[in-house]
Amino acid sequence: MTHILDIAVGTFTMRPYVFAFFAVYLVAAVLHLGWKKTAWFTVCGYLVAFASEYSSINTGFPYGWYYYVDVTRDRELWIAGVPFFDSLSYVFLTYCSYATALLVLGPVKRVKGDLVLLETARLRRSFPVLLLGSLFQVFLDIITDPVALQGSRWFLGRIYGYREVGTHFGIPMSNYWGWLLVSAALIFVLQRIDRVGSAKLRPAGVAAAPFRSLYGPFLYLCVIVFNLGVTFYIGENLMGLTGIFIFTLPVVMTLVLLVRKVDRYHKDELADHLADYPWSPAASGTSSRTVFP
Q1: Distance between CA 100 and CA 149 in Å, rounded?
Q2: What are 117's strand-pairing partners?
Q3: Global model pTM greater than 0.85
Q4: What are phi and psi of 60, to 5 degrees?
Q5: How far apart are CA 84 and CA 67, in angstroms?
Q6: Which of 128, 191, 217, 230 could form a disulfide with 100 if both were Cys (CB 3.0 to 4.6 A apart)?
Q7: Over the stretch 272-292, which tens digit does the pLDDT of each residue have?
Q8: CA distance 212 to 147
Q9: Which residues are CB-contacts of 74 (< 8 A; sequence separation ≥ 6)?
Q10: What is the C-alpha separation between 118 and 136, in angstroms, rounded?
């Protein structure tokens, strides 16, 4: 019993940054989707991620042949050769990528100093959100995997490796193709879960917190900053600069689009949003800029 307790405690204390990100995900997702959908996606998303990792370390699909180094098996939770925290990370990476895609694609209304995303059920479950969200998640992996492979040089520790050295800072291209496939599957699962229940009734947990629509994108940026910070900390300046170059354009484009589209929505877009989510704070407040008929 003591050993089990030690592993449970170690699972949290060895990876505090993972569970800090996970806590932000829970807040953002519950306020957005509600408790039940968040719980369902956390479980289902974890299972999809675990299945993909278990498959890859045993068959080479979908990420290519890699292996885990189980040096921490006696200090944190491992399941069938896969660290628990690793598969759990997919859940919050998927949600923040999905939420960022929504922010890019949806109109925005200013309401008493707040910014409300005029999303609709159709947008949330659309193919464009699935495609863009999947690409956002792959881009995160382009930053996280190379520095994770150098885990022996920072507090992550050496936990995995590839059978053959890849072309992108040691990462093979098969890894990124696999991430695209699995990211699409995870967002697809999230979109299917989002269909459950009546859209007219506010799910338990959903609330109009200030700037709620920015919580997911904020988490996305936190993951980028954390991993780039570690990259420069271990002295991998070329890797870090490459990451900055990769993300400068999408981050700047997202910010410019956000600024330009605030209060520049069609009346039909507001009506569709309120028809799907009548409890939205967008029902009140006035706009100071152009609203198209």
Answers
A1: 26
A2: 108
A3: yes
A4: 90, -5
A5: 15
A6: 217
A7: 999 999 999 998 754 445 555
A8: 30
A9: 3, 7
A10: 21
